[in-house]
């Protein structure tokens, strides 16, 4: 009896191991990302310049596939932090798909937030809202409130752009409470002003005035531009309430302190206050400035004031006819703009609905495949259990156990193949390069592997040249080099004479796809100019140069090999 129990326990023990092994194979193991990358994510929020330098120093080729996805996310986040416009959703979608399976709940929520930021830049508002709201659904309760505040604020501002006032108010009221918890005065002022502006648009004037005054009170320790903008909105609210004297008090002497992006709005509100106060000379003065602005809505306000019965006499008949004609054109352009925005909105909504249908269909297929895989796994487990039971009953354990183990290995291999097929469903790629380019790339990468720590110094003729010293002078004086400067022509001639094979090799590697700006970047890398200095010479942000170096990597090798590896290869050519 004891022997029977021991054998039965052994069988159950082995069966448990098999079940655990299959579950691990099906679900996969989630491991933490590299600690350096996790720290970089925190530094992107606290010390952007330091984080950009460290991201630039990471060798992408030495990262594991697991960490490369997190590095791709950091690249997207760095571009967003440096106001680099997102132009494609392919990378963020790949990261979102990976993080949904391998990331923590907080990491997944942050990635979804940047998915919304990407689609907002692309002008795809439905998808942007979709990802922002998914991020809110996924964000854990114990997550840093700053991320939740960002998601709520972006969602509210997006609904405001869509003129969905109730929805925008719902999110902005939540983010204002978080701003107060975080004692984030700057964002609190911005969010109060936006919520006040929404109430102003729907003529909820008492609430608007209350919000603008709260924003003004919070601006006491901030630069004067914050309080001036609140005063501007309070003046407009007072004007609409009919309190002209109060409006004059708040609007007085604020134009010069208003931030540049709000100057036209300030001019429009100031002109309307002076017009309603009967100070027509001042109203005419500001209206003249408005009609010369680039903002059509504000131009319309300027024309309406100039052509008002009280002010129209300030102009000659010829001027009046000109203003009427320009006013008509402005109205037509505004009408066309509205039609275009409506058409874009309809196209975007159609694309969003199409993508949603495809996503739901893909999710159903993936879920069905998982159920089939799980069902097959349980059938396999049942078969293995039955075979093990027969082994015990027939006392042929050694011989039959060998066959069972062999069958088990075969089944596990089958499951691995199924899992690999599942993981590869969304990954597609084509090899478009010719064989000669492929061979060249292999040779260059081999050159990099064997010589990456042995970069030759620049030749004396280049270091001692007037051109090289002129570039250093530009750097010392922080003076960018104009695109039409003859220095570029002379520098290219010097590079071609010193390194005859440099340009032909680059052209062949990239199949002639390098732009003039990208080629100039390679030249500066070749002569040892650092990333931050390249940004100064080209009058670009550091984030733009980092992005351009990633683009060079793709064009030269058809894949991302990391900025450090790309720089080293350029120096070795």
Please give a structural write-up.
The protein is mainly alpha-helical and 573 residues long. Among the domains are: 66-311, Serine Threonine Protein Phosphatase 5, Tetratricopeptide repeat, CATH 1.25.40.10; 435-572, no CATH class. Helix content is 77%, strand content 0%. The protein contains 27 helices and no strands. It has helices at 2-27, 35-46, 48-57, 65-81, 90-102, 105-121, 125-138, 145-161, 165-182, 185-201, 205-218, 224-241, 244-251, 263-276, 280-291, 296-306, 317-394, 397-423, 435-451, 460-463, 466-476, 486-498, 502-509, 516-526, 531-538, 542-557, 563-572. It is globular, with a radius of gyration of 32 Å.
Keyphrases for this structure?
573 residues; Serine Threonine Protein Phosphatase 5, Tetratricopeptide repeat
Element layout with pairings:
Elements: H1 2-27, H2 35-46, H3 48-57, H4 65-81, H5 90-102, H6 105-121, H7 125-138, H8 145-161, H9 165-182, H10 185-201, H11 205-218, H12 224-241, H13 244-251, H14 263-276, H15 280-291, H16 296-306, H17 317-394, H18 397-423, H19 435-451, H20 460-463, H21 466-476, H22 486-498, H23 502-509, H24 516-526, H25 531-538, H26 542-557, H27 563-572
Helix pairs in contact: 1-17, 2-3, 2-4, 3-4, 4-5, 4-6, 5-6, 6-7, 6-8, 7-8, 8-9, 9-10, 10-11, 10-12, 11-12, 12-13, 12-14, 13-14, 14-15, 14-16, 15-16, 16-17, 17-18, 19-27, 21-22, 24-27, 25-26
Could you tell me the CATH topology label of the domain at 66-311.
Serine Threonine Protein Phosphatase 5, Tetratricopeptide repeat
What string gives the helices and strands in order?
Answer: HHHHHHHHHHHHHHHHHHHHHHHHHHH
Largest sheet: none
Structural class: mainly alpha
Number of strands: 0
- Give the low-confidence spans: 1-5, 24-28, 339-352, 417-434
| CATH architecture designation of the domain at 66-311 | Alpha Horseshoe
Using the alpha-carbon principal axes, give the shape. Answer: globular
| Rounded radius of gyration (Å) | 32 Å
DSSP strand content: under 5%
């Amino acid at each position: 009896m004891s022997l029977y129990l021991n054998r039965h326990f052994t069988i159950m023990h082995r069966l448990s191991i098999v079940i655990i092994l299959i579950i691990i194979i099906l679900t996969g193991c989630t491991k933490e990302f590299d600690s350096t990358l996790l720290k970089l994510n925190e530094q992107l929020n606290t010390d952007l310049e330091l984080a950009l330098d460290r991201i630039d120093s990471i060798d992408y080729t030495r990262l594991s596939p697991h960490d490369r996805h997190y590095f791709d996310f950091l690249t997207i986040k760095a571009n967003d932090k440096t106001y680099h416009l997102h132009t494609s959703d392919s990378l963020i979608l790949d990261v979102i798909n990976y993080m949904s399976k391998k990331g923590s709940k907080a990491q997944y929520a942050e990635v979804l937030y940047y998915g919304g930021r990407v689609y907002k830049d692309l002008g795809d508002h439905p998808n942007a809202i979709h990802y922002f709201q998914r991020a809110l659904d996924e964000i854990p309760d114990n997550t840093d409130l700053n991320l939740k505040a960002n998601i709520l604020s972006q969602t509210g501002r997006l609904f405001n752009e869509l003129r969905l006032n109730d929805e925008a108010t719902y999110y902005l009221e939540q983010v204002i409470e978080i701003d107060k918890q975080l004692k984030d005065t700057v964002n609190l002022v911005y969010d109060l002003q936006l919520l006040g502006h929404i109430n102003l648009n729907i003529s909820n004037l008492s609430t608007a005035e209350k919000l603008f005054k709260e924003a003004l009170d919070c601006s006491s320790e901030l630069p004067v531009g914050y309080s001036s903008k609140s005063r501007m909105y309070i003046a407009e609210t007072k004007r609409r309430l009919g309190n002209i004297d109060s409006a004059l008090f708040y609007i007085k002497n604020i134009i010069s302190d208003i931030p540049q992006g709000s100057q036209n709005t300030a001019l429009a509100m100031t002109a309307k206050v002076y017009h309603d106060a009967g100070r027509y000379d001042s109203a005419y003065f500001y209206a003249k400035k408005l009609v010369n602005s680039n903002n059509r809505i504000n131009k319309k306000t300027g024309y309406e004031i100039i052509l008002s019965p009280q002010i129209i006499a300030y102009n000659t008949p010829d001027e009046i006819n000109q203003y009427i004609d320009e006013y008509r054109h402005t109205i037509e352009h505004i009408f066309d703009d509205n039609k275009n925005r409506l058409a874009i909105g309809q196209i975007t909504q159609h694309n969003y609905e199409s993508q949603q249908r495809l996503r739901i269909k893909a999710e159903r297929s993936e879920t069905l495949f998982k159920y089939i895989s799980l069902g097959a796994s349980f059938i396999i487990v049942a078969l293995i259990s039955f075979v093990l039971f027969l082994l015990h009953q027939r006392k042929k354990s050694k011989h039959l156990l060998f066959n069972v183990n062999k069958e088990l290995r075969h089944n596990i291999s089958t499951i691995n193949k199924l899992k690999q097929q599942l993981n590869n469903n969304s990954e597609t790629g084509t090899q478009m390069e010719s064989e000669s380019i492929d061979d060249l790339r292999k040779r260059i990468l081999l050159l990099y592997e064997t010589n990456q720590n042995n970069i030759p110094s620049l030749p004396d003729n280049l270091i001692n040249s007037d051109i090289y010293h002129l570039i250093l002078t530009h750097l010392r004086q922080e003076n960018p080099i104009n695109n039409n400067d003859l220095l570029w022509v002379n520098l290219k001639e010097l590079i071609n004479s010193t390194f005859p094979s440099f340009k032909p090799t680059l052209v062949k590697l990239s199949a002639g796809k390098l732009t003039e700006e990208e080629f100039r970047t390679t030249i500066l890398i070749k002569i040892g100019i650092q990333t931050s200095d390249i940004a100064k010479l080209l009058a670009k942000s550091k984030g733009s140069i980092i992005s351009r170096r990633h683009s060079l990597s793709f064009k030269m090798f058809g894949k991302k090999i990391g900025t450090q590896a790309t720089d080293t290869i350029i120096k070795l050519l």
